[in-house]
Known about the structure:
Elements (H helix, E strand, L loop, with lengths): L1 E7 L2 E8 L2 E4 H12 L13 H6 L2 H16 L1 H4 L5 E2 L5 E2 L9 E4 L4 H6 L11 E4 L4 E2 L4 E4 L6 E2 L2 E7 L15 E8 L2 E2 H5 L4 H5 L5 E9 L6 H4 L2 E6 L2 E7 L7 H9 L9 E3 L21 E6 L3 E9 L2
Amino acid sequence: MRLYTFEVAGRRHIGAELNRQLVDLTAAHAARLAAQGRREGEPENIAPDMLTFLRAGEPAMNAARAALQFAGDQAAKLEGKGVFSAFDKVKLCAPVPRPGKILASGINYRGHLEEEPGATLPEEPFFFSKLPSCVVGPGDAIIHPKDTDQVDYEVELAVVFGRAARRVPESEILNYVAGYTIHHDVSARRVQMKDHQITLGKNYDTFAPMGPCLVTADEIPDPTTSHLTLKTSVNGQVMQDSSTADWVFPLPVLLAALNRVMTIEAGDVVSTGCPAGVGLFRHPQVFLKPGDVTRLEIEKIGVLENHVVMEE
């Protein structure tokens, strides 16, 4: 499934894509229960938001699949009953608008390693925190801070967990993944590089656009072996173009290394690093400025587009 958080008339809903339309899963689930009755073990209601939905686990996911199937089978009868919406009539939000926590991988692409002066191949995965308050959705503005410059772009594949994991081995860790989305790891390089202030440089408001959807893990095999392509364009010019074939650490290794240290909960996000081509290491350097439009693409997920505005 391709899961979305979307907004209509100021209210947020969770939905899934069907035949290029959005299905409101809450409405579709209610319609199915009214027509077919409630099955043993399934929830009475679909969760009101994506984080609650993910934390409800497999029963909620199964109910969503059944609701989507019902909407497809009964599309004609459900027309005009609040089940279907056109994409151009809604506002898409980040799939998980406020994750529990966000952990992002540092150097995890060989190309990015090679472009960074003095960088060496890490022996183990490196992580830093992005804060949930930084998350914005497709079409939202990236706010350029007025007190610094060197705002940089980074396309990253993000993993969204579907259940709690603690010290899960590499061979099993992907079973805990709910799905994948696009994460734009925006960075204020001058702040980041001064005294190694990674947390401050990475966590200005709006510095974590995500979206447009959460593609469930059953639709994307291990990205380590399926080699998803990633691309960043700024104002139409391609700046990053690579694939997960360039990863330093396979995804199970990356996730299990983090999980040995901390419990990862349903709705948490782990971002997997960015490929070569960032503005900081270009010659000449290229940084985001007000008026720029960023377009991030990841194969099998879609496009995440945002524009840059100056902080007021």
